[in-house]
Protein 1
Amino acid sequence: ILGGRTSRPGRWPWQCSMQSDPSGHICGCVLIGKKWLLTVAHCFEGRDNADVWKVVFGINNLDHPSPFMQTRKVKRIILHPRYNRAVVDYDISIVELDEEINETSYVRPVCLPNKDQHAQPDTYCYITGWGHMGNRMPFKLQEGEVRIISMDQCQSYFDMKTITSRMLCAGYESGTVDSCMGDSGGPLVCEESAGRWTLYGLTSWGSVCFSQVLGPGVYSNVTHFVEWIERQIYLHTFLL
Amino acid sequence: CRDTFCPGGCSDNIACDNHSNSMNCSRCEPITLELCMNLPYNFTSYPNYLGHQTQKETSISWESSLFPALVQTNCYKYLMFFACTVLVPKCDLETHKRVPPCRSLCKNSKELCESVLAIVGLQWPEDTDCTQFPEENSGNETCLMPDQGVEECSPSHFKCNSGRCVLASRRCDGQTDCDDDSDEENCGCTERGLWECPSNKGCIKHTMICDGFPDCPDLADEKNCSFCKDNEKVCNNHECVHRSVWCDGKTDCSDSSDEWDCVTLSKTPSSLLTIHKSASDYQVCADNWQEELSMLACKQMGLGDLPTTHIVQDQHDQPGRRKWLHLSSDWRHKNGSTLQALLVKGHVCWSRSKVSLHCVKEDCGRRPAARMTKR
């Protein structure tokens, strides 16, 4: 995260880290159920074998295991069948864990929006991740407040690339607070009534975040995928 | 020709096909050179003014690449017309002789475009000495001058609003090629080889039509995709399956959509458990109902697994058989993990009561409260 700050441990209990040897943390992910999490499809390019992955929950400092940390193996990776790596469209995947997490105050799922519940332009939401900070990679989870940007406005920043209904933009024209390499798959969450947080986006792509090319970040629009997510979970829980 | 001997300039010529001798080789032939298909004449005669013996030779010649490239510089409006008069000279259908371009056409082309070529270090084609062509209105000899309406660009080129010609394949490709961007104006879906959504004029690939994923806002790309019989129901991916297998606990549509949304709760305050079996809605008889089945129902709906079950007495007097589903007597031994697989039709509901459920949504989206410390 560029322009963010270090998070307090446990503040984002749905944030998880997708890790693979020997690199360790590769992408962020978001817990949406006891056995299910979301991340982006591009994290699995060249490594879509479930066996090479582990998922770490309840962690703040990647370099220091915490007593609240839980680790699970990956049972199944479900890539969106329309994922297009050339234009980074339909950049979403569902991950099934080999066993359920134990829900604690440090490890909790986030809410999914309803299929007609959209992030409203000009509202402020949060992104989190262990991605690049512009000058270094952090050990501790970073958080940043970003503004939701309308699709038309976002398109004007990315003339060379089409912003589709599967994408959501958030951040600032000046790029002051933005997601960056290593944040992919992590959450863009907005606070709803009664202090409940809903997942509207997954960090997907943007301009080269620590260069002088500025603009907002582009996130996979979770609202667009809610029906697909629910059906995949149902299918793999009850039918397959 | 009959003896397989074709002298130069006569091969592939009508004259040979007619077994004539080589004296009449200079014949008119239809223009096939794609570059020059929009000329005000359709027949040519070879050899041309550049010494090419056939249109095939012309098509792979250096000049065939040079002239279209030069046209893009907009150096002379009638350059392409001149180029074609030397590449595929007009054939006079009466005399079977070539009709040359007029000298002024040649001179204008050379004067205006030779300097452009020089900038990139290229030379004007040597064989186009303008003095070989007659002056306009010089006695009996006729020559070609462009009409006002002559197309500057060949059919393989798009004419920009500025007059420049760019390759037609570059029209509507998302990149501007005309200096005035006109090659990217009025780019409909058809021009881009795409399908147009009727409601918002958005363009989608043809492969996206009827693929089970809606792309147009009004779902037009997913309409009229299947023609199922009356006793069939359409899957999300437009396959047809028999109504009787809808929500039977086994996947029949290849995308499993026949087993989606089979378990719901009625919108009434009593929140009756409703099963969409065989493409009809049924309520569930409470005979032999077990709490674990309520849990299964809620889990299937993506809700929490601690439901409250109520048994609601049916208001009708008769223990009717219609619109009821009954728990199968051997449901514990049934090989099915969905509720709909455990329920059967056609049994009497002796208790005359239905299952009503209140599922609790699993908690989500809550952060732990910040710990408070004395200061």
Protein 2
Amino acid sequence: DGDLPITRKKSLERFFEKRKERMTMVSPY
Amino acid sequence: GVGETMPFFNQESLQQRLQALIDGARESWAYAIFWQSSSTSDFATPSVLGWGDGYYKGEENKNKRRASSSSANFVAEQEHRKKVLRELNSLISGVQAAGAGSVGDDAVDEEVTDTEWFFLISMTQSFANGNGLPGLAMYSSSPIWVTGTEKLAGSQCERARQAQGFGLQTIVCIPSANGVVELGSTELIFESSDLMNKVKYLFNFNIDMGSV
């Protein structure tokens, strides 16, 4: 419903940040 | 100092402890979750374990589990997961509109692995005292360590069976004064006092090592 508890918001922010890091770490070779 | 009371409700501190727990481990843990107990002085109200914080590290050898990536089911499931991730990302981006900004499309359009999905849906779960692996660990005040596909699949706990369905091979729940620390891995990891001691040290609470 668009109303996330603050702990989930923080956890999701970190999850997405880490996911982006993992994506950019993938070797192009 | 170790003897001080840990600021359990400080999420930064929780996150650091969860990261320290598995980033420095010899074993390859995919994630760590702190299930926080609803603290109440009313003994008539049963305590419930809900999402406190989590750290998702990822799998070491995820490429070897991509055999079915061309099946129609896989494609449909990936579409569903990416749609949910886009929606969640929109929520988060809205939250931080005045600050750090969006994480970008590349973080949501890549394959969403089974363990990532299991971690994400964990955020929606909660456990009454005695229910599920975390609730059982809390209720018994004893760590629960389940290793192997068969043991997970044969568990009475829905969460263990769910974990197995998403490719996890090891799941551990270690109780604390204010909740339960859970770790999961796609590898076979066997019980060690080393991990118990790390949790005991990092989360600063007492567990009965004799009951392990």
Protein 3
Amino acid sequence: CTSVLAEDSKGVLYHARNLDFGLFFGWDKAKKTWLVTEYLRPTIVNIRFKKSGQTVFMSTHFAGYVGILTALKPGRFSLTVNSRNSLDGSSTLGIIEWILGKRDAVWMGFLTRRVMETADSYAQAKQMLTGTKMLAPAYFILGGNSTMQGCIITRSRNAAIDVWERSAAANHTWYLLQTNYDHWKPPFVLDDRRTPGNKCMMAKGQASMGFKEIFNVLSSIPVLNKLTTYTALMRVDTGEYHSYRQTCKDPCPIW
Amino acid sequence: FVPAQFTQECRSDTYPPPSSSEVEWFDVSLDEAPIIRWRHVVARRQSQIRDLLLQFKNFIRQLTGSSVYFNLVARSLTLIAPTVPQPYQDEMVGISTVTGIPLGEILLYNIFYEATNL
């Protein structure tokens, strides 16, 4: 996955993501595609969660999955989840503990759903995402509704091990880009979507930032790859939310 | 073709994407009982959800040489389904009822993030 938080020169914050999934779950030799990725794409739906006739939040789902991976609460905050693999504190122990009856940790999708339903502000969402014990590590990318709001929360099972605030980001405070590796470490050499993503963001520049240029960045190889199922574009202040199924035509990297 | 081999330039011609790629919208009312609130969504996508889970089941069968492992996990998950917090537990029961997919498989789908991490 690749998530981007970017602010244009007028102070408008955009939040976007590519959701990549299906690595190693079967390869179609004839079509040169990941099987699960291809089967996931037709299940994608956008949901408006409503209460008393009013929209509470909007999200993109794989139909049948009730948790949240990409969502926007209009006027409040936006949230995307990127997967994080960590040898220390992986989900193995958490799942075993759950089965054995120790249930003080929360499944990731249920936590994010609770955040979208109950948190009323960026600060409250951030507090819930940093302070709740989980069954597996993750990256939470959280956008706010005013200038300089936005952070990337690197989670272990027990706590946030890093909160990367836009205000603290070196060199390019106008955007943050997160893939599936801790931002303070180099990415895996065979899966570096961070460097090309940053290169494209810097080439586009803050002045031209908006849905068009973020979509172009997320459609550039290898940020776009054979695991990409959809791209979502969100703007908290106006409540705009768009998502598009994505496919990557050959020549295209397999991840 | 792994990313390290690619040096493609940044795209500038992909927006707007074709309207055919736009994702369809549905409303889900949080005022409705959890067991029925997803029915209209999953009813429209039940064959796709079934195909996806079947594909995953086939993958596990090819990997292990048997359907036993997938079925064992799905059956075990049915037993722990009552421990899933509400309203998600009832939502999954509702999805299982509408699609006809066993509850253990729907639960596996919903904890896929943790399961794949494992």
Protein 4
Amino acid sequence: DVAEPLTPVPLGGLGEESLQLVSKLKDSSSSCAVDVSTVWWEAAGSRELCVVTACESSVCLWKPLAPDRWGKLYTWQLGDIPVIQIVPLPDTHNLVCIALGDLEIGEIRWLLLYSESDSFKQSLLKAGNIKAALGLKGRRVVNSSRTGQEQQVEMLSLSELGRSRDGQTLMPPEETVLAFAEVEGMREALVGTTAVNSIVVWSVNLKTGQLLRKMHVGYSYPASVCHRAYSDSGLLFVVLSHPHAKESESCGNPAFRVVAFNPKTAQSRGVMFSSLPPGQAGRYLEGDVRDASAAAVLTSGAIAVWDLLLGQCTALLPPGPQSSWALARWATTGACLLAGQRDGTVCLYRY
Amino acid sequence: CSESDLGPISLNWFEELSAEAPP
């Protein structure tokens, strides 16, 4: 279970020099990568960035052994419910959450990683018909769930030892919330995208979970998913992906879009499009955004990377000869892309 | 507060909407 070291290999063609293969992780006991993420691991006074890989029945923690070499530190065996998502907690160490379920999330569990006391624990954080979950700064997890016609939007706080403290209920919109994003630099502001293509803004503090504004994204890009939000000069900028957008002559086949909203008037305007590179057939499948970098798996089995400020594709990873790409995630820190293949191999690229 | 093509904008939009919203 020691990952093989690799010499960085530049890609040919588009993105040459912008993505360099650094390491390859392959869990010999798993056949299919469900998700991949990173987590800070603090032990004996030092802090290291570890990789977390998930397959349906287990979650593995990988530790850097030497530059470009990784070793498996621990494996959590899960029960009968398959893992479907890792829910990373930004600015937190030794703690990660996972979502388990079939078609939708049925459970959120936290996994604790403290080696000194050999405490690699797991425990239930929330159960229900959960539609979306996101880890936030300050060891918080927001989630939306539905029981019949009633929707609950809830913020859960975790202590340093993982145990859940009291939750806070946020005012739900009528329609189901399908994705969340923190508003960067505004700890009390949170946005979400809904099933009818609206952006919802909440005020999240210890006292209230007010719903401040609901703004429609527009009919041209249905089923938008929010990935990132920030406020600048009185406008709220939201990075959206468009898994169901139709190809158009003016914008090509859009994957990501930066939209500026005026929260005071609920008016909006598209700022930048990031479309599939010319010659790439198919559409956006799933992706991840960190700062101004966006990465997405395309239906062709390739991974494309964009600079959102320029709206340009900067790198393209074609599908491998034996396995196509299934996952694209950015590491918590540093310019590192985690790319998962269908056969369970996870490749780390320096970007 | 200033005018834009998205209507009047406010740098304090979050505080203002929080004060206006029902608790």
